[in-house]
Write a structure and sequence with these properties.
Blueprint: E1 9-10, H1 12-18, H2 23-32, E2 39-41, E3 44-48, H3 49-59
Antiparallel strand pairs: 1-3, 2-3
């Protein structure tokens, strides 16, 4: 099975799919600062894949979120 192709610059729908989020959830993460703001490219908002990757990588160092979750609490 081949991995999907993810372009360097992604429209909202593609960027949300890349993060396995709905578009609404993706927008909430952008608004909260968890994910990067878009840049205008071709007069449309695009997200840079490497910026998304960097911010997602930073999340792994943010502590153990499971302690706050009823589902995953140890």
């Amino acid at each position: 099975m081949n991995a999907p192709y993810w372009p360097a610059m992604m429209l909202r729908k593609t960027a949300a799919a890349y993060c396995e989020l709905s578009e609404a959830a993706f927008e909430r993460e952008v608004s909260s600062g968890t994910l990067p703001m878009p840049v205008l490219l071709g007069n449309k908002p695009h997200w840079h894949r490497e910026q998304i990757d960097a911010m997602l990588a930073d999340l792994s160092g943010a502590g153990d979120w499971r302690a706050q979750s009823n589902l995953y609490a140890a």
